[in-house]
């Protein structure tokens, strides 16, 4: 192990001094296993799953609300066909949801033509619409501002607008309008035929207040607008039939059992449902399809004996976004305690080149430092370098050096990005302070067809899906099977990447300090310096998380201690470089030296070191927020929060018994795109958490 550690350090040194090393695809898994994964991953199978479940947007039959939804039945049948273990469907209380039955919109005067039909294209009917059978005149209200509606005289008419259907419906029906026709679109120039999947009130389908809404594609809506602006009198006949149906939340799942039940788990997640009206091929049948293929390929290779069964279990859950993930996580609190990490697939199938898009990896926050970020990044880089041509990558030859291309997919380079944390998907449930499972997200962005009627199967690419399946499966298997040797390889990868990340913070700090004047230099200096200090804290904490892969190994513990010390030294070298630059900058501004004393608040903040209590996780996902909400208002008023950019959940995650209140402020500031939080706000919120019994000091 000592020889292994020395050799890994040598690799790090070589890679930092030789640019050629950055051009060689390298993976944490041995080459033969990587080849097995690439060969087994099928973009075609994943694409076929998308076609079967979301080839086009259709009306969901009412019968699905009394049994299993079609998507649930499809996933379960495939899992059983593939021989996966413990295939179950957990059900949780849902409620009632809006459901369209039929709707038509006909022009009856001066001509006779059909403008919209729910049975042909369900997206034309705004969710939340009410039953109607009316014949009325159309009236143009522009973007639907209050003054436009007042001026138009909308009582007893159906308004036509280019504005938000929800907003215009609220304003116009209050003035007596019968309904709304909108051709509003977030991207009318790029996709003039796309209709947004939204409604009157909530996209998830809350019932409207006796009104209805129709959508037209921007192209068709503009034709209608032109006729109305030319003072043409148009009368339409609108028929709408809807109902409200009870539903349950369904979470299909399966596992690939590890050899050691005590070694922990890795959980894949993807949302199969986003409400029950919206259906999207990329968002997110693509993530669900890719996850299904990852489960199949891992299970197949293990059963065939091509790869060893890993020591840790790999679990797969297909969820209703947020609404199903939260109950499932809360039902499995004990499982969460031994879950190492979460990989969330949300919108992963888009044809990247056609959409000027990237496959993005969104990392965890500083409050959830974890090696999963670097394991995923390893396979993103492997795929990126292996699937592009470059003079330094493949000198003297043409083509990709590690080709991952589906037979019927694109032959494009792999466009990817490693990005900061972003929530708004199911990994955020795992990252929650009450759950504390570090989760990352894979997502294609931008997506021109996101939440529109044109998010259908033809926008996806089998090659992109094959690459996603390879990356996800390889990363999960690397962690699931990791012992001492792989743990040290992962730790070395984190240490190597940490130097690059510290370097980025150094550059950011220099850029910020460049904006300083003599009068505000101290404030700019402290904030800029804190970016690097926060990065050092996070990088050291990330390396230390690798210990969970070999918790009883003294050799790994010793290796991690040395790598952590190396990361600390590299971080301090960045601080030294920054201070050298800062001193030069100060002298150019006429400041003789940098000798700023800490404020009284900063001195106090260094002594406040909060640690989470068991109460945080007692109620599971978001349970702590209910504890805070029940606090006596007088307690809250005793500790006022003045700033608006305070991420209170991240503060909670950072209360680990090691970070001081001052450290927490620095860690928050480093994650903000601009500006900084008030230190007193951080202190006050920690005191609020203490009063609630969520932290001790």
Would you give an account of this structure?
Helices cover 43% and strands 17% of the residues. It is of the alpha/beta class. Strands 1, 2, 3, 4, 5, 6, 7, 8, 9, 10, 11, 12 and 13 form a 13-stranded mixed beta sheet that branches. A two-stranded antiparallel sheet has the order 14-15. Strand 4 (158-161), helix 6 (165-173) and strand 5 form a beta-alpha-beta unit. The longest helix is centred in the C-terminal third of the chain and has 35 residues, at 554-588. The protein is globular and about 80 Å long.
Structural key phrases:
two-stranded antiparallel sheet, 697 residues, 17% strand, alpha/beta, disordered N terminus, 23 helices
| Share of β-strand residues | 15-25%
**What class would the helix/strand composition place it in?**
alpha/beta
Unreliable stretches covering 5 or more consecutive residues:
1-20, 202-208
End-to-end distance? 39 Å
Number of helices: 23
**Tally of DSSP β-strands:** 15
Mean pLDDT equals 93
Major sheet, described briefly? 13 strands, mixed
Q: What characteristic shape results from the CA principal axes?
A: globular
Relative helix content: 40-55%
Give the C-alpha Rg.
28 Å
What's the topology here?
Elements: H1 2-17, H2 31-40, H3 43-54, H4 70-81, E1 85-109, E2 113-117, E3 132-140, H5 146-152, E4 158-161, H6 165-173, E5 179-182, E6 212-215, H7 218-229, E7 235-256, E8 265-273, H8 281-303, E9 313-320, H9 325-331, H10 333-337, E10 339-345, E11 358-362, H11 372-386, E12 416-419, H12 427-431, E13 439-445, H13 462-480, H14 484-513, H15 521-545, H16 554-588, H17 600-607, E14 611-612, H18 615-618, H19 623-629, H20 633-638, H21 648-654, H22 661-671, H23 679-691, E15 695-696
Parallel strand pairs: 3-4, 4-5, 5-6, 8-9, 8-10, 10-13, 11-12
Antiparallel strand pairs: 1-2, 1-7, 3-7, 7-9, 11-13, 14-15
Helix pairs in contact: 1-14, 3-8, 3-13, 8-13, 11-13, 14-15, 14-16, 15-16, 15-22, 22-23
